[in-house]
């Protein structure tokens, strides 16, 4: 996901060919709770961003979660998607 600006974010990881990633609803889904590992995290992407604070603002506005536990301090931030899955914003 390119969080540096532009009108449309992309979910294509840097250096990879474009691929579709289908999403499905899972009955009885239990969202993981960062950093608790009682419910396993299935996928934890890191997104390189040029401006950490601007990328955070762009994601928090539509509803990204902001866990209390932040081990990366000013180098990276842990956020969660609406289903509770963690991902990181990493300073590029």
Automatic annotation (TrEMBL):
<dbReference type="InterPro" id="IPR029068">
    <property type="entry name" value="Glyas_Bleomycin-R_OHBP_Dase"/>
</dbReference>
<protein>
    <submittedName>
        <fullName>VOC family protein</fullName>
    </submittedName>
</protein>
<dbReference type="Pfam" id="PF18029">
    <property type="entry name" value="Glyoxalase_6"/>
</dbReference>
<dbReference type="InterPro" id="IPR041581">
    <property type="entry name" value="Glyoxalase_6"/>
</dbReference>
<feature type="domain" description="Glyoxalase-like">
    <location>
        <begin position="16"/>
        <end position="90"/>
    </location>
</feature>
<feature type="region of interest" description="Disordered">
    <location>
        <begin position="62"/>
        <end position="92"/>
    </location>
</feature>
<feature type="compositionally biased region" description="Low complexity">
    <location>
        <begin position="1"/>
        <end position="15"/>
    </location>
</feature>
<feature type="compositionally biased region" description="Basic and acidic residues">
    <location>
        <begin position="66"/>
        <end position="82"/>
    </location>
</feature>
<feature type="region of interest" description="Disordered">
    <location>
        <begin position="1"/>
        <end position="39"/>
    </location>
</feature>
């Amino acid at each position: 996901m390119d969080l540096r600006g532009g009108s449309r974010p992309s979910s294509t990881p840097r250096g990879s060919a474009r691929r579709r990633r289908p999403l499905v609803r899972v009955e009885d889904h239990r969202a993981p709770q960062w950093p608790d590992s009682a419910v396993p995290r299935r996928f934890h992407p890191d997104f390189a961003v040029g401006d950490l604070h601007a990328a955070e603002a762009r994601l928090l506005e539509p509803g990204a979660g902001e866990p209390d536990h932040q081990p990366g301090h000013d180098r990276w931030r842990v956020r969660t998607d609406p289903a509770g899955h963690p991902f990181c914003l990493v300073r590029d």
